[in-house]
Specification:
Largest sheet of chain A: 6 strands, mixed
Largest interface: A-B, 22 and 24 residues
Oligomer: heterodimer
Helix content of chain A: under 10%
Radius of gyration of chain A: 13 Å
Structural class of chain B: mainly beta
Number of helices of chain B: 0
Number of helices of chain A: 0
Helix content of chain B: under 10%
Distance between the termini of chain B: 36 Å
Radius of gyration of chain B: 13 Å
Strand content of chain B: over 45%
Strand content of chain A: over 45%
Number of strands of chain A: 11
Structural class of chain A: mainly beta
Order of helices and strands of chain B: EEEEEEEEEEE
Distance between the termini of chain A: 41 Å
Shape of chain A: globular
Order of helices and strands of chain A: EEEEEEEEEEE
Chain lengths: 109, 111
């Protein structure tokens, strides 16, 4: 069965802390997406990656294809980073996205 | 550039009523999707379409129907709403396995 697991489910941190959210998946993928959802809001795509590392501002996403694992890092976290972060993958031979259950991040001032 | 637009944003239905959710995209994407999001669960695919005139079932299709008569629109219908269909519904579009664009969501309550 094609599965996506995220950890932790919930994360609370102080402003300024370095944040890591993890995503693991069961079989080979063609692409992995990191998405952000603010409370009551829509879903925004942060990154799409199939290898290596991508950086956008304070956000960094990495993927290790051999270990079937990806991480999303936030440096110098800020209260406005508080949101649900969702990992989603496209498995080989299947264009549809399979989603993790999300990580709820709360940054305390 | 509107991206993906869903209407309505909120709706309350009585059990047994019907309704249609509309998703419109202006990016000429071939792929369109309808998901539902429930507490403690990841987004689950209801139905999807890989092009105008085509539709296919996702993970949780029962109780829903869809149509893709025009490339830019993807409609989700509930013929006889049930309380189990209370959820937040998201539409998305993409050019295949690349960046997906999501609508703002529709919060549906069935009483």
């Amino acid at each position: 069965k094609n599965e996506v697991e995220q950890s932790p489910q919930n994360l609370t941190a102080q402003e300024g802390e370095f944040i890591t959210i993890n995503c693991s998946y069961s079989v080979g993928i063609s692409a992995l997406h990191w998405l952000q959802q603010h409370p009551g809001g829509g879903i925004v795509s942060l990154f799409m990656l199939s290898s290596g590392k991508k950086k956008h501002g304070r956000l960094i996403a990495t993927i290790n294809i051999q270990e079937k694992h990806s991480s999303l890092h936030i440096t110098a976290s800020h209260p406005r980073d508080s949101a649900v972060y969702i990992c989603a993958v496209s498995f080989f031979g299947n264009e549809k996205l399979t989603f993790g259950t999300g990580t709820r991040l709360t940054i305390i001032p | 550039n509107a991206g993906v637009t869903q209407t309505p944003k909120f709706r309350v239905l009585k059990t047994g009523q019907s309704m249609t959710l509309l998703c419109a995209q202006d990016m000429n994407h071939e792929y369109m999707y309808w998901y539902r999001q429930d507490p403690g669960m990841g987004l689950r695919l209801i139905h999807y379409s890989v092009g105008e005139g085509t539709t296919a079932k996702g993970e949780v299709p029962d109780g829903y129907n869809v149509s893709r008569l025009k490339k830019q629109n993807f409609l989700l219908g509930l013929e006889s709403a049930a309380p189990s269909q209370t959820s937040v519904y998201f539409c998305a579009s993409s050019l295949g396995a690349i960046e997906a664009f999501f609508g703002q969501g529709t919060r549906l309550t069935v009483v």
